TrEMBL record:
<dbReference type="InterPro" id="IPR000835">
    <property type="entry name" value="HTH_MarR-typ"/>
</dbReference>
<protein>
    <submittedName>
        <fullName>MarR family transcriptional regulator</fullName>
    </submittedName>
</protein>
<feature type="domain" description="HTH marR-type">
    <location>
        <begin position="1"/>
        <end position="144"/>
    </location>
</feature>
<dbReference type="Pfam" id="PF01047">
    <property type="entry name" value="MarR"/>
</dbReference>
<dbReference type="InterPro" id="IPR036390">
    <property type="entry name" value="WH_DNA-bd_sf"/>
</dbReference>
<dbReference type="GO" id="GO:0006950">
    <property type="term" value="P:response to stress"/>
</dbReference>
<dbReference type="GO" id="GO:0003700">
    <property type="term" value="F:DNA-binding transcription factor activity"/>
</dbReference>
<dbReference type="InterPro" id="IPR039422">
    <property type="entry name" value="MarR/SlyA-like"/>
</dbReference>
<dbReference type="InterPro" id="IPR036388">
    <property type="entry name" value="WH-like_DNA-bd_sf"/>
</dbReference>
């Protein structure tokens, strides 16, 4: 038998994938209940948690699992449903911002309490405070290495 099959690195990546898939399956029904896809929820969260509730489209792509064209399609769909709007960048005509609307904020407010309950039940509530702090540090280390754009545009920048 191939000894590489017992490599703990395979176990580590396998457990991460299984945990993520299991959590997403637990959350999916609640998103469906609110007629919201997981990626639409992620976009609303990213925008709501960003300075001025907006992100450049390229930064939104960097913070999500979507390509630039994927973000365009999702924002188009969300714009048609009134959850986001686009705004031109005043300093760069090539860029535009996705901005969460009042309707998007409302939709997020409807989904968030149930989402937090599920996150508590199936994720953070299973860990001690110390385990959670260590997990968050570890996940940030990995995220910042494999996806350095993950926080692009999320820091407040002073006006020029």
């Amino acid at each position: 038998m191939n000894k590489d099959l017992d490599d703990p690195r395979l176990t580590a990546i396998g457990l991460l994938a299984e945990a993520y898939t299991g959590l997403m399956n637990r959350l999916a029904a609640q998103f469906d209940e609110h007629r919201l896809s997981p990626v639409e929820f992620e976009v609303l969260m990213r925008l709501a948690r960003s300075p001025r509730s907006q992100l450049r489209m390229t930064d939104l792509a960097g913070q999500t699992t979507l390509s630039t064209s994927g973000v365009t399609r999702v924002v188009d769909r969300m714009e048609r449903s009134g959850m986001v709007r686009r705004e031109a960048c005043a300093t760069d005509r090539r860029s535009s911002y996705a901005v969460i609307t009042e309707a998007g904020q409302q939709r997020l407010a409807e989904v968030l309490p149930g989402h937090l309950e599920l996150v508590q039940k199936w994720y953070v509530g299973l860990l001690t405070e110390e385990q959670l702090e260590q997990l968050l540090r570890s996940l940030r280390t990995i995220r910042d290495t494999v996806n350095p754009c993950a926080v692009a545009g999320s820091e407040e920048t002073p006006p020029a």
